[in-house]
């Protein structure tokens, strides 16, 4: 009886061992039937197994060796949201074409340049081969596949329309990543203006102004107040540059840590960003676009409305909107219509509320929300392009003012001396 139990225990443990196995990658060189040289890389259990597989394909292998590991940590490349978006589109396309999911995963893994992404796809494939569903295997990777992604896949499996849902998820991920790129572009330009202005000022104060100071010492005359102020600032920078650099670094690190660890700080910053003159409008529209598209996708996939709102709250990208969506969820859970609950938050524009009301009345909520998402995504796109066009000349003007002011400060004593002579 003990032997039987031990055997059962070993049998139960085998799938777990198999999940952990990831086949090594080999580089091969060979000749086809025409004598043409061919080469490539492929995963296989052993080199001999790969040789046998190549011979079946009509290729005579001459070299089969393990692929060397990257010296500079290529395996350490992180998996980006863009990698997940591309993966989503690939798996959706293959399933729609009738390719079995395990075969699809094998093909996708073979085309991955990011080693970590390739390992992730292979792990998912191994789990599916061992009997897990796609949603179950994705649950083991919550960092790469968020709750929304997993819920949509699970809903697709339950309804028997996994290929259609994955196609929707792929489109959703692509649109969201495009929107994120636009938001980053909008935030990058103001930051770049400030950074360039500070860098140019620091270079002039530390390296250029001291050269003029040596010349002014021989004048023996009192320097203009503006020139003296710039020289004093230069002396301070040269003497305390290390303290200034450390202070700035401490401020940046402290800001990042506080933002990550303190919900109150995050909420304060999100509210502050929404109130900024130009950036605030873009962030408002971006949050509305995310909310509308995410709710449309989850609702269209068959996820219950209250559960969909729970998932959508964290996908808005702003804690102010996140709290508002959670309030909408609570109101909908006790019987309110979505448009009425949205209106109570006093955060959603009249157009969004009206479109939602029409969608609920016509039984086409997801369709109306898709239209709202497309409208605000276009608004964000136009606003970012306008901001870029506005800031390009502004950067030139700011740099001109900074450099011009310092040039004037340095040449004022020379003008004064020339007037005396």
Automatic annotation (TrEMBL):
Annotated signal sequence range: none
Spans traversing the lipid bilayer: 188-209, 240-258, 394-414
InterPro entries, A to Z: GspF/PilC, T2SS_GspF/T4SS_PilC_CS, T2SS_GspF_dom, T2SS_GspF_sf
Main location: membrane
One Pfam family named in its UniProt record: T2SSF
Organism: Lysobacter helvus
Protein's name in the database: Type II secretion system protein F
Limits of the Type II secretion system protein GspF domain: 87-210, 291-413
Localization per Swiss-Prot or TrEMBL: Cell inner membrane
Family: Belongs to the GSP F family.
Keywords: Cell inner membrane, Cell membrane, Membrane, Transmembrane, Transmembrane helix, Transport
Gene designation per UniProt: pilC
């Amino acid at each position: 009886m003990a032997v039987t139990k031990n055997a059962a225990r070993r049998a139960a443990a085998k799938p777990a061992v198999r999940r952990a196995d990831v086949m090594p990658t080999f580089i091969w060189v060979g000749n086809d039937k025409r004598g043409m040289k061919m080469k490539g890389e492929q995963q296989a259990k052993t080199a001999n197994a790969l040789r046998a597989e190549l011979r079946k394909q009509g290729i005579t292998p001459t070299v089969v060796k393990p692929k060397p590991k990257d010296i500079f940590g290529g395996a350490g490349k992180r998996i980006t949201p863009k990698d997940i978006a591309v993966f989503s589109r690939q798996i959706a396309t293959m399933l729609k074409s009738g390719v079995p999911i395990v075969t699809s995963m094998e093909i996708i893994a073979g085309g991955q340049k990011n080693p970590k992404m390739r390992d992730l796809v292979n792990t998912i494939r191994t789990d599916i081969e061992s009997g897990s569903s796609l949603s179950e295997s994705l649950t083991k990777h919550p960092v790469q596949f968020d709750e929304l992604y997993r819920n949509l896949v699970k809903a697709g499996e339950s309804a028997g329309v996994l290929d259609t849902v994955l196609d929707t998820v792929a489109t959703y991920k692509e649109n969201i990543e495009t929107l994120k790129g636009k938001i980053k572009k909008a935030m990058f330009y103001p930051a770049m203006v400030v950074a360039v202005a500070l860098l140019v000022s620091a270079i002039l104060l530390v390296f250029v102004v001291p050269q003029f100071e040596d010349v002014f010492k021989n004048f023996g005359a009192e320097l203009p107040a503006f020139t003296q102020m710039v020289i004093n600032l230069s002396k301070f920078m040269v003497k305390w540059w290390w303290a200034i650099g450390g202070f700035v670094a401490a401020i940046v690190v402290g800001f990042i840590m506080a933002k990550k660890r303190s919900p109150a700080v995050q909420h304060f910053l999100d509210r502050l960003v929404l109130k900024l003159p130009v950036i605030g409008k873009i962030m408002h529209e971006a949050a509305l676009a995310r909310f509308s598209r995410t709710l449309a996708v989850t609702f269209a996939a068959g996820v219950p409305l209250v559960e969909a709102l729970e998932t959508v709250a964290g996908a808005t990208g702003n804690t102010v909107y996140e709290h508002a969506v959670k309030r909408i969820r609570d109101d909908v859970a006790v019987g309110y219509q979505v448009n009425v609950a949205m209106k109570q938050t006093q955060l959603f524009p009249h157009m969004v509320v009206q479109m939602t009301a029409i969608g609920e009345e016509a039984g086409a909520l997801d369709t109306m929300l898709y239209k709202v998402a497309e409208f605000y995504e276009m608004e964000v796109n136009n606003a970012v392009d306008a901001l870029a066009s506005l800031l390009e000349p502004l950067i030139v003007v700011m740099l001109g003012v900074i450099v011009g002011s310092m040039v004037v400060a340095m040449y004022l004593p020379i003008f004064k001396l020339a007037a005396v002579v």
